[in-house]
Design brief:
Elements lengths: L3 E8 L4 H12 L3 E6 L7 H10 L5 E3 L5 H10 L2 E6 L6 H6 L1 H21 L4 E7 L22 H19 L4 E7 L1 E3 L18 H10 L5 E4 L11 E2 L1 E3 H16 L8 E5 L5 E2 H12 L5 E4 L8 E2 L4 H7 L7 H14 L6
Parallel strand pairs: 1-2, 1-4, 2-3, 4-5, 5-6, 6-11, 7-10, 8-13, 9-14
Antiparallel strand pairs: 9-12
Length: 344
């Protein structure tokens, strides 16, 4: 197969991070195509993407576990690289339904890699997670920290990373960029696309936004007795627009004018931690609305502090986060206030 260096497949490309990355890739001159089964995304996002980019969206609806279909799609679109977002991502749900997570996140990765290998497309950007660091002994976290996991979701990401390392050992033709996300938040500045979790949000920012817009009465803050400045958990929140640019930089580095760049594993974060109550106060300021909260017991699997040292991504990819917490809250509020029921 002769690939088109501008053709990039986004598995799970209609989801929260995938849709923002789609826009960023179009703006960078690429021709992304989307594969999504809409199990955790909404078809309405496609029309929104067309409004933002001013061009038709190419999207095929299928599960990434359909290996033969994925292989045919790679060949049909002459795909040069894949950005793999198609994975379930709720820590709590993974604890309650581990087999669902292993089947989709690990099984889906095996299927995708088999399809790519058969189509002679061996350039991959993998959507990993800071959960692979488990409960870190210290912060900020660098990429050479020991890896571990505190929940099945984190374990699936770690298994996929190990699988990619084994694949590269077996066949050095594979070029892989592993991106360990910290906590993606915010929305596109147009307010047309954003985070629209199904059911009760598992992540802090969309929950705070739904409280501010009146969809939920109160925020539950899980634990206020951590060894942090205000006792609540500290996380590295990164604007989804910055995260999307990280995927563009990673794709460019791997494709490297068609010659294939070196593989890498990098953190995508801001390098700065914010507590739950920091986010609550910033969101109240951005929205002009109160965000009432109540303190609840700690959740199993949560860690006290988790934030990145993002220096390697800047050195290898020329990438760094540029948006502040105030920017993240302002854009999340614009999305939520313009779309109080999400994409429905």
């Amino acid at each position: 197969m002769t690939s088109n260096p501008n053709s990039i497949l986004l598995t799970g490309g209609a989801g929260y991070i995938g849709s923002h990355t789609y826009v960023a890739l179009v703006e960078a001159g690429y021709n992304p195509v989307i594969l999504d089964d809409f199990s955790n995304s909404h078809p309405a996002v496609l029309a929104r993407l067309e409004r933002i980019t001013g061009r038709p969206v190419v999207c095929e609806r299928r599960d990434v576990a359909d290996t033969a279909f994925v292989q045919a799609m790679l060949q049909r679109h002459a795909v040069a690289a894949v950005v793999h977002f198609a994975g379930f991502k709720s820590v709590g749900e993974s604890v309650a339904q581990p087999l669902k997570y292993y089947r989709n996140n690990v099984g889906g990765m095996v299927s995708l890699l088999q399809a790519m290998d058969a189509a002679n497309c061996r350039t991959l950007v993998f959507s990993s997670s800071a959960t692979v660091y488990g409960d870190p002994a210290s912060v900020p976290i660098t990429e050479d920290f020991p890896t571990s996991h505190t929940n099945p979701y984190g374990h699936t990401k770690l298994v996929c990373e190990d699988m990619l390392a084994a694949l590269r050992t077996a066949n050095p033709a594979w070029q892989v960029g592993v991106l360990r996300y910290f906590n993606p938040v915010g929305a596109h500045p147009s307010g047309l696309i954003g985070e629209d979790p199904s059911g009760i949000p598992n992540n802090l920012m969309p929950y705070v936004a739904q409280v501010a817009v009146g969809r939920r009465p109160c925020l539950n803050v899980y634990g206020n007795d951590y060894a942090t400045p205000d006792g609540t958990g500290v996380r590295d929140y990164i604007h989804v627009q910055d995260l999307a640019q990280g995927h563009v930089a990673a794709s460019q580095a791997l494709l490297d004018d068609g010659e294939g760049g070196d593989s890498f594993t990098v953190n995508l974060g801001t390098g700065k931690g914010h507590s739950v109550l920091d986010v609550v106060r910033a969101f109240e300021q951005a929205s002009g609305r109160p965000v009432p909260y109540q303190i609840m017991p700690r959740r199993q699997g949560d860690v006290a502090q988790c934030y990145a040292d993002p220096a390697l991504a800047q050195r290898l990819l020329g990438w760094r986060a540029t948006h502040s917490l105030a920017d993240m809250c302002a854009d999340a509020w614009r999305w939520q206030s313009q779309n109080p029921e999400g994409y429905e």
